[in-house]
């Protein structure tokens, strides 16, 4: 699409009509927020998890939507962009904590306590996210090719089981000592609860994911067009 002049004759670019950018922005925001939430250890009785438990599975739902509608190439772009945005956020938090506080500022210790672990958490989160999401997207696209686009529910769950397993093991292995999880039983609890929970969320959200994917397919003019 070519640019068009404004009434003053100045040229501006006109982006192509697509919903990919909105999904990309949502993926970046969810990953950054879930990384901040993950710095808090959360316990529901004997069940151990972290504060990002209700946000992070949604990143995989968005990843499924992008993979199904736009394919692996754009899904990979979204994953890498989210990866970079979360890394930049962690670096920004580190700089923020390192800046000298004003004499009247009394919350430096609280700020460092809350945001200080984020770069460490992000290291595990990003490595797990990058591995898990790429596996999730690759498996989903390959299954779509093998099934001729049929059995969406199977593709969604199959890709989730693979991607979330890699993601959870990598992230929990790095985050556990940071959160104070030191025994093997606590670690196993942390991994199993995280994995089962994330997979269960995607399963529960299937009745919502289905119509959302269909909505995007109907409104993307290029969907199904051979290139």
Characterization of this structure:
71% of the residues lie in helices and 5% in strands. The chain is mostly helical. It has one domain (20-216): Arp2/3 complex 21 kDa subunit ARPC3 (Orthogonal Bundle). The strands form two sheets. It has a two-stranded antiparallel sheet. α2 runs parallel beside α5 (118-147) and α6 packs antiparallel against α7. The two termini are 17 Å apart. The mean pLDDT is 85. Keywords: Cell membrane, Membrane, Transmembrane, Transmembrane helix, Transport. Belongs to the vitamin uptake transporter (VUT/ECF) (TC 2.A.88) family. Q precursor transporter subfamily. InterPro entries: YhhQ. It is found in: Cell membrane. Involved in the import of queuosine (Q) precursors, required for Q precursor salvage.
Separation, N- and C-terminal Cα atoms = 17 Å
CATH architecture: Orthogonal Bundle
Shape designation: flat
Uncertain runs are: none
> DSSP helix count?
8
Sheet with most strands: strand arrangement: 1-2
Provide the gyration radius in Å: 20 Å
- What is the helical fraction, as a range of percent? over 70%
Characterize the largest beta sheet: strand count, sense, and whether it forms a barrel: 2 strands, antiparallel
Strand content: 5-15%
Return the CATH class: Mainly Alpha
Q: Could you say what the CATH topology is called?
A: Arp2/3 complex 21 kDa subunit ARPC3
Order of helices and strands: EEHEEHHHHHHH
Structural class assignment: mainly alpha
- How many separate domains make up the residues? 1
How many beta-strand segments? 4
Mean pLDDT figure? 85
């Amino acid at each position: 699409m070519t640019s068009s002049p404004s009434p003053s004759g100045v040229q501006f670019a006109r982006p192509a009509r697509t919903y990919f950018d909105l999904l990309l922005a949502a993926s970046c925001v969810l990953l950054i927020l879930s990384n901040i939430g993950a710095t808090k250890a959360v316990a529901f009785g004997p069940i151990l998890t972290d504060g990002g438990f209700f946000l992070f599975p949604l990143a995989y739902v968005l990843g499924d939507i992008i993979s199904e509608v736009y394919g692996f190439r754009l899904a990979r772009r979204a994953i890498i962009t989210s990866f970079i945005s979360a890394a930049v956020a962690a670096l920004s938090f580190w700089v923020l904590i390192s800046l000298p506080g004003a004499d009247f500022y009394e919350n430096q210790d609280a700020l460092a306590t809350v945001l200080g672990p984020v770069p460490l958490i992000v290291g595990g989160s990003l490595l797990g996210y990058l591995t898990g999401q790429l596996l999730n997207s690759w498996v989903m696209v390959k299954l779509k090719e093998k099934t001729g686009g049929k059995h969406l529910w199977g593709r969604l769950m199959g890709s989730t089981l693979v991607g979330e397993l890699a993601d959870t093991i990598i992230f929990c292995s790095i985050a556990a000592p940071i959160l104070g999880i030191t025994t093997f039983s606590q670690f196993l609890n942390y991994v199993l609860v995280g994995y089962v929970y994330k997979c269960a969320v995607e399963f529960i959200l299937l009745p919502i994911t289905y119509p959302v994917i269909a909505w995007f397919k109907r409104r993307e003019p290029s969907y199904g067009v051979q290139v």
